[in-house]
Amino acid sequence: MSADDRHTLGKLAGQRVSIAYGEHRIVEDLDLVVPERRFTALIGPNGSGKSTILRTFAGLMSPASGTILLDGRSIDTLSTKDLAKRVGVLLQGPVAPEGLTVRDLVRQGRYPHRSLFARWSDEDQAACDEALMLTGTTTLADTPLDSLSGGQRQRAWIAMTLAQRGEVLLLDEPTTYLDLAHQIELMNLITVLVRDHGKTVVAVLHDINQAARYAEHIVILNNGRITAAGRPEDVISAEAIASVFGVRSVIIRDPVADTPLCIPL
Known about the structure:
By secondary structure, the protein is α/β, with parallel strands linked by helices. The protein has one domain (3-264): P-loop containing nucleotide triphosphate hydrolases (Rossmann fold, 3-Layer(aba) Sandwich), CATH 3.40.50. Helices cover 35% and strands 26% of the residues. The chain contains ten helices and twelve strands. The longest helix has 18 residues, at 180-197. The termini are far apart. Mean pLDDT is 92; it is low at 1-9.
């Protein structure tokens, strides 16, 4: 595959992907391209396949048919450890053992890079220190996870995925259960990771306006199919919101971010 072909495919891509639970097809014949070094948001009503697609792109589920590609190469050709070195994933409601500190959790992100009896290296330490710094959790390193607020805990889990030092970060509803201040904090962190550190981020989001303000690429899903994909201003419309969510709305410009702002009627 040529460099031009890989660029066309994007960083992460699905080609003719179908996903099923038993006999029940959730996603049918999906073609999805994730732009490199961009923030992509997956939005759509409940049951549209957003989380299922994310899990499949992370290699946690196998498609019934089709191929998931990373830099033009099928992820089936990568070992679990090799894939984890390149793709970090944070699912909904992660659970850690009682008493585990933030530092202990973040150190687990180095698992893909370590053999069974390998000594803790300077590179491992540097990766963890950087992950703590980027997420603003350095001062919380020795704090038990179960004593943190929801926003602090979410940042600690993201620090663990960053310690993997992968190019891709997949987040399943990362702002759910967070108050408004912590939601903004988390979305700003994603912006920094993409803009300043070259990460490719894909997140499942429920808030349309949040997706429009922060994401550079939006994929609207309905019944396991893509109804629109592109820049927020190209895909967020009253017609799309009515068709996919069954809600009448007016779309105006966000006076702060100059992005589409959906006002339900």
